[in-house]
UniProtKB/TrEMBL annotation:
Organism: Algoriphagus marincola
Subcellular localization: Cytoplasm
UniProt: substrate binding residues: D122, G123, S124, S125, N215, Y242, Y260, L261, Y262, K272
Protein name according to UniProt: Fructose-1,6-bisphosphatase class 1
Domain Fructose-1-6-bisphosphatase class I N-terminal as annotated: residue spans: 13-201
The protein's annotated pathway: Carbohydrate biosynthesis
Similarity comment text for this entry: Belongs to the FBPase class 1 family.
InterPro entries for this protein: FBPase_C_dom (IPR044015), FBPase_class-1 (IPR000146), FBPase_N (IPR033391), FBPtase (IPR028343)
Main location: cytoplasm
CDD domains in UniProt: FBPase
Domain spans labelled Fructose-1-6-bisphosphatase class 1 C-terminal: 206-327
This protein's record includes keyword Cell membrane: no
Residues binding Mg(2+) 2, per UniProt: D119, D122, E278
Length: 333
């Protein structure tokens, strides 16, 4: 039961769950709940497109509509369009930062309280080969007063200011996992019913694990500490698992226990992943599930961003594993 004593259980639909959980916010107006529903709806649409991805080139053969030529576009572009539409039409959002857009999208929505940072379709190199991909989103409350023009301080908030964050994993099942700061819950999509159902209530990450996920092809470009930590993983005969889709790698490690690393490399001193719409959301979820996220020096959620698409090294996963990796980094300094 939640704080109000209302019961929910495995099998509760996402809509009902969101309604129950509204009581976590005693003065809530329901806008965040509506925003989460908007995101879930866009996720269903992207799920449908993702499932059809293999048919994209033969779409004409079975009479797919072509109103806006969208099916000719790449899936990450389509996903961006879908989420942009859902977020801008819903009315709760005033500004969006997206991996697919160079600048902040100012929706000029005077009543929109929330700022959303989103990677509409992450891991897009995996689309063409039918491997799991994901959507990642962070939600912030705007800092400046409602109705005034959007300012950079509304956008450049550290991850610790997130009011909600989540991801959608388009995998062997499609799942939505999110947090509003009261634990992490996972919902699995039932295609034939068109509903997300609570399947993973109150996810708790194992304190340690035996899986490490890193692009080992870049080993020659790693710093000493990372090398030493991975050597330790090997000495302990941990399993190497790397999908190359952040959401999928993170999700597996969250449930089974493990660590994901995208460290600094020679060519990318800040790693590859983006702070605003990749690292922050997963860091918030990790911490809410009892796991940990760092850039090797500081907690991801404490980093104050200075640019929209800034990158950060990311070490995320089971607490003891992340701590051990940090130890190696500090020792090799
Ligand atoms: P993308 O935003 O261009 O899709 O890149 C992000 C992806 C992550 O999903 C994944 O963990 C990582 O890039 C893989 O990078 P690499 O191929 O360098 O190992
Ligand atoms: Mg991405």
């Amino acid at each position: 039961p939640d704080q109000s004593g209302m019961a929910y259980s495995v099998g509760t639909t996402l809509d009902r769950f969101i309604k129950f959980k509204q009581s976590d916010f005693p003065f809530a107006s329901g806008e965040l709940s509506q925003l989460l529903r908007d995101i879930a709806l866009a996720a269903k649409i992207v799920n449908r497109e993702t499932n059809r991805a293999g048919l994209a080139n033969i779409g004409g053969a079975f009479g797919q509509t072509n109103v806006q030529g969208e099916e000719q576009q790449k899936l990450d572009v389509i996903a961006n369009i879908r989420f942009m539409r859902a977020l801008s039409k819903g009315g709760e959002v005033c500004a969006i930062v997206s991996e697919e857009e160079d600048a902040v999208i100012d929706l000029k929505n005077k009543s929109g309280k929330y700022v959303v940072a989103i990677d509409p379709l992450d891991g897009s190199s995996n689309i063409d080969v039918n491997i799991s991909i994901g959507t990642i989103f962070s939600i912030y409350r705007r800092k400046t007063p409602l109705g005034s023009p959007i300012q950079m301080e509304d956008i450049m908030q550290p991850g610790s200011e997130q009011v909600a964050a989540g991801y959608v994993l388009y995998g062997s099942s499609t799942m939505l996992v999110y947090t509003t700061g009261f634990g992490v819950n996972g919902f699995t999509y039932e295609t034939s019913l068109g509903e997300f159902f609570l399947s993973h209530p109150q996810i708790k990450a194992p304190k340690s694990g035996k899986i490490y996920s890193i692009n080992e092809g870049l080993e020659l470009d790693w710093q000493e500490g990372i090398k030493n930590y991975i050597d330790e993983c090997k000495a302990k005969r941990y399993a190497a698992r790397y999908i190359g889709s952040l959401v999928a790698d993170f999700h597996r490690n969250l449930l089974k226990g493990g660590i994901y690393l995208y460290p600094a490399t020679k060519n990318n001193p800040n790693g590859k992943l983006r702070l605003l719409y990749e690292a922050n959301a997963l860091a918030f979820i990790a911490e809410q599930a009892g796991a940990k996220a760092t850039d090797g020096k500081s907690r991801i959620l404490d980093i104050v961003p200075d640019s929209l698409h800034q990158r950060t090294p990311l070490l995320i996963g089971s607490e003891e594993m992340v701590d051990q990796a940090i130890k190696h980094i500090e020792k090799s300094k």
